[in-house]
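Supplementary notes for students who missed Thursday's class. We covered one full example, reproduced here. Read the sequence, then the structure, then the short commentary at the end.
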Amino acid sequence: MNTLQEMDQENHYCLISNGPILFKATNPLWEKFEGRLPQKELGALWMQCRTPLIASSLGLDVFWGTRHQLPLFLSRNVKAALTVHDIVHLLFPETMSLPILMAERLFMRRSIRRADHVIAVSGSTASGIQDHYRVKAQKISVIYPGSPISSEQDRSKSFNDEKLPEKYFLFVGTLEPRKNLKTILNAFSLLDPEKKGIDLLVVGNIGWKNKELLAILNSNRFRSRVHLKGYVDDDRLSYMYKHAVCLLYPSLYEGFGFPILEAMHRGVPVITSNVASMPEVAGDAALLVDPADAQGLAEAMNRILMNDDLRNNMISKGYERVRQFSWERCAEETLAIFNQWG
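Structure (token representation):
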């Protein structure tokens, strides 16, 4: 969004939300329309009921749904673009919270049909949309996001109050079933962390459907070497990345997978899954594993621990890989879709 508002000095943008919009609009052609219904669970309902009226009153030419949904009663005179990040609700519905699952099931298919053009964040997501929704290829564009790290966020800071293990693997993500932390814990045990002198740092919100996971964690014989840090701010996360041996990201499914680029940007090797979008994002700069194979993950972890040449090579390839994801290119390609309608 920042890059788009810097790049486009001609079109007028209206940001519409059911609650407060925290994004800072610095372009005078951008304005905000904030509703008074901040509850996230009611956001989809607000979009369907209120947004068409706002769009009509503003005389919009183009409506961009930035995540999975469009107002279904939007005037047919308004062209509609829709960004789809993933199709988790079709492939792994059991890993989702019920309110989000119901909203996806109720609105996504109808939104894709209503859209004049669909933007997918990866080729994997685009293929999934075509296969499950029978959408023609010419209606879909793959537009990759840029690196999630800005120059401001990449400042090197130290935290005297943050006592990190001397050597650790890092997991970054919400504690929910799709992130596959259960397999990480099994692989960590197989590695014999006491013998290797290695810990596991887990960073992210508690999430949902994780009672079994937390029970497995608390009964793990290496529990003292697993550190739950919860949510941390960007500066502290950067500090944790930069001191990690490796990022572990063997998700069952991702529409893109930003932590892969976050780690590579900060010079951290990555082990990720060989399914969905993750090989597409990682390229040849990561070790790919079957997310269901704890033994295979443990072997990959051991390779990085024991082979400095491999680790250094992965770091170099990671720096090269992350340069291929640009917010400037993302904004240019998105703007080209808008401009084709006027």
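Commentary. The chain has a mean pLDDT of 93. Residues 123 and 142 are 6 Å apart (CA to CA). If anything here is unclear, bring it to office hours.
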